[in-house]
Each structure stands twice: as C-alpha cells, then as structure tokens.
Amino acid sequence: MLGRSIGRVLGFAWRILDGIRRVVHLVLMLLVLVVLGAIIAQRPGKLPETFALVLSPQGVLVEQYEGDPLERALDAAQGLDSNQVLVSELVDLIEDAAADSRVTAIHLELDGFEGGSLDKLERVAAAITRFRDAGKLVVASGASIEQASLYLGAHADELYLDPAGDLFFTGYGFYRNYFRSALDKISVDWHVFAAGEAKSYGDPYVRDSMSEAARANLQPIADGLWGRWRRAVAEARGLEPALLDDYVDRFLPRLRAAEGDMARAALDAGLVDGVRTLAELEERLAETGARDEDGKFAGVFAEDYLAAQRVAQAARPGDGEGPAVGLIVARGNILPGYQPSGSIGDASLRDLLRRAAEDEDVRAVVLRVDSGGGSALASEAILREMQMVRDAGKPVIVSMGGVAASGGYMISLASDEIWAHPTTVTGSIGVVAMFPNFGRLFDRLGISVDGVGTTRFSGALRLDEPMSDEVKDVIETVVDGVYTRFKGLVAEHRDMSPDEVQRFAEGRVWLGSTALEAGLVDRLGTLDEALASAASMAGLEEDFRVESIEPELGFAERFMADMLTRGARAGLVRLPGSWLAEAPAPVRSVLQEAGQLGELSDPRDLYYHCFCDTF
Fold it and tell me: Distance between terminal CA atoms of the chain?
C-alpha cells in the first residue's frame, strides 16, 4: 500500500515535470519561429542615394573579440554591452566608405569610446586620414572627450564638443593595487618566485608598493607612449606639443579663467573647433550632400552600412579563392588547451596553425600577437607549432600589437621576421611562479593538518601547510632553470650571444623602437606592412588576398548565435541580465582582475607573464 502511494506521488510529480518540459519546448519553438521571422524581416534595407556614415564605436579597440559568437549573442540578449570594437572591422568600414560614392562624410561620435593601445589608435587614425584624402569630410564630436577619443577626434577635419561637454586627459601610467598588508592581516602567505630583477608580475602579493627596478623600467615606457601620443595629436591639430602638457599641468587656472566651463577651456586652448548641438552637427554634415528626398539630413549607422556591405560582398563571385596570406590573431592570456577567442590556448592555436600549414592556398602566415603572456608550458608548445609551419616551407611573420611581452614574446621567436609597432611593449624575458598558502590562517582558525605519506615531499605543496625551506629551494631552482631556458631560446632564435640577451633580459620591457636597436625584433611597422612582407616572401602579387584563419563554428552554433543576435536587435529576445553588469565599476574591476588571475593555469605554476597594459 505504501509503495503504491509513493508510486502515485512520484507518477504525479513526473507528469507535472513532463508537462513543464512540454510547455518549455513549446515556448522555445515559438521563440525560434518568432526570431526566424525577425531574421527574415531584418534584411538590410536600401541605403539612401547620398548619406553620412555615422560611426559610434562603443568600448575598447581589440584585435579579436573575446568569447565565441554564441557567448557574445547571449550577452546581447541580456542587454550587456560587449565593450569591444574590432579594429579591423572599423578600419574596413572607413576604407569601404572612402571608396563609396554614396558616402559624403563621416560623423565620428566619440561618446562611449574607451580607447586602445596606440598601435590600434594609429590604424584607425590612418584610415580616417585616407578617407579625408578622398576629398570627404570627417566631423568628430563628443560630450565628454578623453585621451583616446581626442586622439581620433584630432585627426578629423572638425572636432566639436557638446555645449555642456568637457575635454580632459591624464597621460600614460602603470598603476596596480598591492596586497601584501591585506594578505598579512588575514594570515595568508603568497609565495612568489621570480627570475629577473624587474619581473614584477607577482609583486602585488609580496609588496605594498612598486619596486625601484620596476619603476625605473616602466617610467621610460610611459614617457615614450606619452611623447608619441602628444606629437601625433599636436600635429593633427596644428598645435605645439608643449600646449598639451600645459593644458594638463595648468588645468585648474585654465578652468577658472573659463569660469568653470570645461568646453570653453578646451575651445580657448584650441583643442576643439567649437561647441555644437546634435542638430547643428547634422546640419553641418548635410551641407556635404547627405540629404534625403525631403532635404533632411541622411545618416546611416555603421551597423546598417556593414549589413548592406556584407550582402553586396556575398553577391560578388570569386571572393575568398586563390593564393593568400593567412592571418591568425593571438590575443589575450596564453593558457593550456582549447580556449575561446580573446584567450590563446596552445591547442586552439595549434589547430589554426596546422590548418594554415595544410591549406595550399595559404602561401605565408602572419601571426598578430597582442598578449602579455601566460603559461610557460603553453608558450613553449606554441613556439614549437610555429616552427612546424616554417618547416612546412611557408614563411611565418609575426606582427606585434600593443603588447607582445614575456610569453607573448616567446611565441614570436619562431618566425622569419618579427615586426613591432614603435609603441609595442615587448621583452619581459623572465619567469615567475606563485603559490598562495593558507597555513597561518588555518592555524588561527584552529584547523590542523595531519596524515601519512610515502616520501619527504608528500603533502609538501598543500595550501593548508606552511611551505618548507627545502620546497622553496626546489621551486627557486626550477624557476632559475626555466629562466635560463627562456634566454637560451632567445639567443638561438635571434642569433644573439648569451651576454647580449642578458643585457635586455631581467624581466625588463621595452618599446618596439628600443627592441629594434637591441635586436629583439627585425622591423618596425604596421600589420599591413607585415602582411605585405609575408606576401613578398611567398612571391605573391601586390594585390594579394588576406585570409583570416579563425575557429570554425558548427551550423547549430552559427544558427543560434545569429538568431539570438538578430532577436536581441529586434527586441524579441531579452534574457535576465548579469548581476555583475549592475555592480559599481570599482567592484567590477577587482572581480575581473581576480578572474584573470584565476584563469592562469600552468601545470607547474610557472608563467611567462607581464603586467604591461598600456591604456
């Protein structure tokens, strides 16, 4: 009797769950049908006969989006900003617009733009200059213009502030939080073993301030970046570079003279051409011929223009065929295994390199490196894969982005040429190992550890037991050995003597211009110049094709990503947002930094990693 009663209850519960399952499936099917309708309905509309292209880059310039397309689509469905602007996509948009007779001008809206390393800013600025050289107008505007947005805005024909806006910049710097006292207060020991006097990646866990070696190394980097930014902005605006220093150093007197009006202070300094409302800006752009049939301003947003361009490109036969230079982007922390875009997995990158090696159309490979390093084992695994592509008879060129240091520099070694931007931060030839230990904390809490083992090192690396001096000596010896290996690989691949390598090792970082003098890189130049060099090595014509080699998504993943993205744009899909997106900015910053630390996963806890973000 009891068994039958339990069975009835379970059967009833199952019928309820099965009913819920059927309802959920029905809802999902209806959602699919609705979004499919939205996809069909959202085909690009016809563009005006003449119009201004409205560019409003939101977030940070990146070489590669972070996460796979499905993850980004889910973020969009949650209303989360991607906070990323693909620099190649932005440059291509401007290039296409320059050649498009329908586009009379560009309106560059700078609010929401969060910057990027100088090499990326220069790529966009160069595209803006080429657009202007085509005889077309670029008008830039913003309500709050900061350092990176001023760089781009300075390269426009005209730069305007909102009447209630502001313009301010602070220069370059390297700042971190230091946790030694905080860790000591909670009785946590963080053991850091570093080879290289200026190898400062682990310093925040054992110090309360920047070391003198790190300070002496990083100050010239900051000065070099500031000098290049200052010269470029001053030249673009027709100003003396010293004015930019004066604007910051004497900002308070300037602000007082302008009676607290920040827009007026910027105008008085000649940093902008005027103050205008949106309506006034649109009328200015309309003067270039960007008007509709009713004579009103005709503007097309980048998203709509890009969609129309993709449709037109898909209709052109022959694209994507024939000899090419393969372009692979390696951005983010270097980690073991398969990793999503925005991180460099040794297995993920291996697959891309092997695809390039086996593709008969790919005659040369350019690896675009934008990484401060990561796992020592993964870095060396990638180095070997790079050499295998060269052994297959294909030229391999490395083009360095904003940062190519430590592990990012190591993976660049196995190449026929290394190209760096003058402001690339590279080098950081050194090693660090880190082991947190909670033995003192457990002791304070009254938690003890006991047990048996078979050797003198059984339990020696437990996080809840203090680390012995013998274990520390073992780790230090291993770190020193890995450091020696790193320097040896540099000497081998760069044809340098051990003494020459040592001069530029010790974990120190260098700007690309100094790295060239030191012999750490071969050429200074842009990604386009590196691609051209690769094409020349492969014997390709000047109008060579570039093939981006990226992870391949299955049909279901592509379908779901496209469906979610289009549904979110149409307002038909809205998932619950992330609590992190609602957290205050300082909280998000700390949690994201902790997450980056947590994702480092070398089996031996040995890292070629550099703290050298430049914006």
Answer: 73
CB distance 207 to 179 below 8 Å: no
What DSSP element (H or E) covers 86?
strand 84-86
| Nearest CA among 480, 483, 511 for reference residue 608 | 483
172-211 per-position pLDDT tens digit: 999 888 999 999 999 999 999 988 888 888 899 999 999 9
Q: DSSP alpha helices (H): ranges in 369-468? A: 376-391, 407-410, 439-445
Sign of CA dihedral 527, 532, 538, 541: positive
Residue type present at position 591 = L
Residue with tokens 């980056």: 596
Question: In the structure encoding, which two tokens stand for residue 587, read together?
Answer: 């909280």
| Cα 170 to Cα 172: distance, rounded to the nearest angstrom | 7
Alpha-carbon span 515 to 524, nearest angstrom:
9
∠ at Cα 407 (403, 409), nearest 5°?
Answer: 55
Q: What CA–CA distance (Å, rounded) separates 493 from 413?
A: 6
- pLDDT at position 14 is 52
The one-letter code for the residue type at 282 is E
Contact 289, 136 (CB under 8 A): no
Q: What is the pLDDT of residues 467-478, one digit of tens each?
A: 999 999 999 999
What pLDDT, on the 0 to 100 scale, is given for residue 573?
A: 44
Q: H/E element holding 545?
A: strand 545-548
Q: 3-class DSSP state for residue 228?
A: helix
Helix (H, G, I), strand (E, B) or coil at 22: helix
Contact present, 139 and 85 (Cβ < 8 Å): no
* For residue 553, pLDDT beyond 80: no
Return d(Cα 105, Cα 421) in angstroms, integer: 30
**Residue 103 CA from chain centroid, whole number:** 30
Residue-wise pLDDT for 208-247, tens only, equals 999 999 999 999 999 999 999 999 999 999 999 999 999 9
